[in-house]
Amino acid sequence: MKREVPLFITAAIGLFMILSFFVPHQVVSVPSDFLQQTAVILVAFGYVLGGANVLKINFDGIYKRKPGWAYKLVLVISLLVTVIVGLAEGRTWQDPHSMSIWIYDHLYAPMNATMFSLLAFFIASAAFRAFRIRTFEAGLLAAAALIVMLGRVPVGDLLTSWLPHGLQLGTIQQWIMDNPQNAAKRAIIMGAAMGVMATGLRVILGIERSYLSGED
Amino acid sequence: MLAWLQKVDRRWIFLWMGLLVLEPLLFPVGFPIRVTRPAQMFADAVASIPDGSTVLMSCDYDPASRPELVPMHKTALRQLWDKHCKVVVTCLWPGGSGIVDETIREVHDEPAYRNLKYGVDWVNLGYKAGNEAVMVLMGQGVAGAFPVDYYNHSTSDYQALPIMRNVRDYSSFPMLVNISAGYPGTKEWVQQVNSRFHLPMVSGCTAVSTPEYYPYLQAGQLRGLLGGMAGAAEYELARKEKLGPATRGMDAQSLAHLFVALCIVLGNIVQRRRTPGSGA
Amino acid sequence: MSPSHDFGIWVAALLTLCVFSFLYRDNPFYKFAEHLFVGVSAGYYIVLNFWTVIVTNLYDPLHTMFVKHQAPFAAQLGDYRAWLFVPGALGVLLFTRLFGKIGWLSRWALATIIGAYAGLKTTGFAQGDLVAQVQASLQPLWTGQIGSSLNAILFTIGLITSLLFFFFSREQKGALGAASRVGIGFLMVSFGAGYGYTVMSRISLLIGRFQFLLHDWLGMK
Amino acid sequence: MTLAGFGGPDVARRLPCPALPVAALAFSVLLASGAAAQTLIPPAPASGLTWSDAPNDAGRSVFLTWRASPDDSSSPARVTGYYIERAETPGGPWALVDSTSRGVTTKEDPTVRRDTDYFYRIAAYGPGGRTEALSITGPVRATSQWMNQTRWSVLVFMVVFFGFVLYYMASAQSGRKPFVRRIAGIDAIEEAIGRATELGRPVLYVPGIQDIDQMETVAGLVILENVAKMTARYETPVRVPVSYPIPFTIAEEMVKSGYLHAGKPDQYDPSSVTFISPEQFAFVAAITGIILRDRPGAHIFMGSFYAESLLLAETGFSTGAIQVAGTAQVAQLPFFVVACDYTLIGEELYAASAYLSGEPKLVGGLKGADMLKVCIIAAILIGCVLETLNIHGFTAWMNTQ
Asked: How many domains does chain C have?
């Protein structure tokens, strides 16, 4: 029951989804449509579960007064407030002037955006402190990086405006993107596709079970 | 100088970075922009859509990618509305439906589009969980995957949403315009919808994922590709939009790129001088 | 310059600055913002998925079925009626994870998700990333023009040698070794291009934040 | 106005009495337009309506094609467009299905029920009224297909690949272990651990920041077991910060079993594996803390990394430790390549884990992919030659669009 049933479910559904790719007949397409609907619903439940999990872990931390519990309190309160407001506002919670959208616009959105903009700073310092051209390969990488970086923005053409059009950074950048980088990227894409397919096969056949790990 | 550079606190680099981005935002220079082929292909592909048809626009991003994707989202929307196309908007990123709706409303508030009607000229179907499953599900019926829109109107209520009368599945659309920040996004639309349902598509994406989508462009799976803010700026230029947000960002972008390039070169010069064994 | 009068913009601006303070070093302001962000986003995702999926795709169709006294089973495309109890029940089972002893029940739901996506991804990658990509690589090596022919040949060499770099069934000696050395060259160029584009992405995000602070908050145009 | 015999007898069918609807139409036009009928002449009818079932679907639509009215391109325009009408019996009642503008002579009707007979007729309309075609077409029937004919090439690729994978898996299981070359990165790891031992400093191992559902995390954990084996042999402590609960418990098992295999179970330090946090930046801050505080002599990053790769590589680089990294996240590879002494690129990470563990399921997948690569390279070479010789059959077979 604990292992066999899930393995059977995965195998049956996985094979059926593959079948539905090749067989358009309604005998296959209607159930597979239902399975997709099921997946959509379950993923949504998964998000709710994820939130509940965050609550559980942090309640635990607060209760035991683990280090940084005050921050955890901030987390729990903000989570609960967001949920209560959202549920209380009912089906029209996404109207432009609702409380939920205020929270989204003025808390969620700016922090979400700023967290990732920090990387602009780190990328500069990493370029200075940890970009070593020690081998021929690293030299190729650096050359391509510099050409693309400068050629992709207006300043690249400006710096090389004295050269004929074909030798300007913007043109070379486009050639690199279209040819050598495109060829290598395609090889990577194909390799990754084989990796995904092999994993998919192992999951469906029940050989790969790491997703079932955890307490029995 | 070299000695100082060797053990410079990285916060000095942070400061320089900040100032270099800030300066051109306050005092614009206006470097000339040139439209590259993938961006021109994007504009041409959208232009080739028959006037007045209903187009699917999936906006899979969240506020973190706003500076890169919102400008191109707006320009694409303007191009479609200029062609009197009707637009069906979806969003597969959980953090995205709010900003996507806001972006559309901002374009709608512009004088040229103010008299367009919600439910007639466009509909925002909002967010749906499930990534690839939603994409394939829409192939059997858009209304089945999205029973209500962002504002909670039923998608089978043609009184409230007349546009949905023309929307059944992917065969109802001549093209998919995808604005993508990662997973799920262009790669998955190519795999599940372009391949499976043969729906032609164009993609506007963040710069990080642009190189990965070049093979799709070469293979014709994508009809056009906008890469990051530079792609958005080129698109604005191709559409002759004066001083769009991406175009205005290009000066800062240029200076910051110069700075990073300088960091790479300088970093290598400085470090070469380092005596071996000093921890390098 | 006329700073915003909107309370919300001020909150957003101050939180932006709290996050930026991490550049100086890790500090309580950053930690506060970080935890607030995690809490708000987890809460927002719950509300979002509850209203847009669980209510609209699950509850509403079931409710309609009971109100309209329809036959419980239809199983036509898009009309599943009582069948929807299955995902509903599996969804509830997912929550047994939170209760140690019966946690294994959640695996049934997990297995459904994993199976569905394994099937979808396997075929999606096979068609979109393998067959279509191979097909697009079959190009004439002589196009009648010297420039584009050289590009086509270079592309084909790059693709094949890059594939050979990831070939693990032989020692990389002799011809295979030489080919994979060429392949790594192509791979490095592609990583360099990736580096350049990543730099562009990150800097754009910073530009966006500065535009917000300058225009929306401080009111400089 | 004659009806052309377009299509076979099963496609178009002549009405027994075409005069009746024409008369009715003439009457209605007369009523509607009155005196204006003198100047506004109804268009000549369209003709030759044919149908075909939409291929590769579950009987969800039919395609209709007709020949335009002779007046289609007349000027002044006598045709505005065409109405497509449908009925379930030849005698009606007729319902409007769709309309097109002039010049368009094909339409898909996606509103049909499968396995149901329909009859279609086409009517040209314009300022002067409408004229129906002289014949109706039917019965039209949308049916389901059992195989999508455009996907044979995908099926062949999948069957070949799965065949290879399963064959090599079985062969590895039965003891005939397929050859997998040693990955240079594994030597680099051993060298790094040796250096850390010389310096008398610990080794830092990060198995990525993703959960167990990422294959890279699994690969990272497999490699961890071997790293633990080496650190046990060298008697050097290892620090393993982990981001998610399940990889954390597995990492503990892996380190313990590594020490056991090295014959030094007593040296295993239960505090060497620590659970940190799934939050990206919190996780990075904790690792940066370890790097700057404990000053490990070797940093090994193996698994799935996102934007934080940059921070890890940079901080690690600044301490001067030997760094070895491996990931399949293409966007992050450049940062590792420039800041690390050795980087396992993409599939090399999986290959290293397959090589080290010798597990049939991993080796099988790897060998299967290798064999498919050989096939793909052959296909590309053959295809390119054929294309150069202007032979397009092979390319066309692979086309799935």
From this structure: 1
CA distance A154 to chain D (A): 23
**Whether residue A140 has pLDDT greater than 70:** yes
Q: What ipTM did this prediction achieve?
A: 0.90
Q: Which amino acid is at D61?
A: S
> Hey, what CATH topology would domain D12-140 get?
Immunoglobulin-like (2.60.40)
- Whether D213 has a pLDDT exceeding 60, the answer reads yes
Using an 8 Å CB-CB cutoff, list chain C residues near B127.
48, 52
- For a pLDDT cut of 90, what percent of chain D falls above it? 33
Of D299, D9, B67, C186, whose CA–CA distance to A119 is shortest?
B67
Task: Establish if C131 belongs to a structural domain.
Answer: no
Who among C92, C107, C112 is closest to A38 (CB)? C112
> Is pLDDT above 50 for D14?
no
Which chains are adjacent to chain C, needing at least 3 Cβ pairs under 8 Å? A, B, D
Encode pLDDT of B23-51 as tens digits: 888 888 888 899 999 999 999 999 999 99
Average pLDDT, chain A: 90
Looking at A202-206, B101-105, B260-264, D163-167, which range is the least confident one?
Answer: A202-206
For residue C194, being part of any structural domain is answered with yes
Question: How far apart are alpha carbons D238 and D202 in whole angstroms?
Answer: 6
The answer to the question of residue C177 being in a domain is yes
Domain boundaries D181-357, corresponding CATH code: 3.40.50
| CB contact (8 A) between residue D319 and residue B279 | yes
Residue A190's nearest CA partner among D167, D332, B212 is: B212
D263 in the Ramachandran plot: left (φ > 0), alpha (ψ -120 to 50) or beta? left
* Full residue range of the structural domain in which residue C156 is found: 139-221
Q: For residue A155, what are the CA distances in angstroms to A146, B28, B114, D83?
A: 12, 14, 37, 57
pLDDT at position A214 is 54
Q: Which amino acid would we find at residue A206?
A: G
Of C11, C90, C203, the CB nearest to A120: C203
Sign for the CA dihedral angle at C33, C36, C38, C44 comes to negative
| Residue C3 in domain | no
* Rg, chain A, Cα only: 26
Instruction: Closest CB to D151: pick one of A22, A115, A197.
Output: A22
CA angle D122, D127, D130 (to 5 degrees): 25
Residues in D closer than 8 angstroms to B195, CB to CB, are 400-401
Q: Give span(s): CATH 3.40.50, chain D.
A: 181-357
Sign for the pseudo-dihedral over CA of D108, D111, D113, D119: negative
Question: Chain D contact for C130, CB < 8 A?
Answer: yes
Q: CB neighbours (10 Å) of residue A2?
A: 12
DSSP state of D346: T
Taking residues B254-276, what's their average pLDDT? 82
Q: Are residues C34 and D279, on separate chains, in Cβ contact within 8 Å?
A: yes
Size of interface B-D (CB pairs under 8 A): 18
- What the block records as the tokens of D81 is 């467009």
The three-state secondary structure class of D72 is coil
What pLDDT is recorded for position D19?
Answer: 40
- Answer for the pair B211, B228: CB distance below 8 angstroms, yes or no: no
Mean pLDDT of chain B: 91
- CATH 2.60.40.10 domain span(s) along chain D: 12-140
Tokens for A16, please give them: 């059926």
Taking CA–CA distances from D58, the nearest residue in chain B reads B140
Pull the structure tokens for residue A12: 């049956």
Task: Calculate the CA A82 to chain-centre distance.
Answer: 24
- Using the predicted structure, report yes or no on whether residue D236 has a pLDDT greater than 90: yes
Return all residues near C11 (Cβ < 8 A) that are at least 6 apart: A106, A107
pLDDT of B1 reads 67
Given pLDDT bands bounded at 50, 70 and 90, which one contains residue B250? very high
In this complex, do D144 and A125 lie within 8 Å of one another by their Cβ atoms?
no
Give pLDDT, residue D372: 93
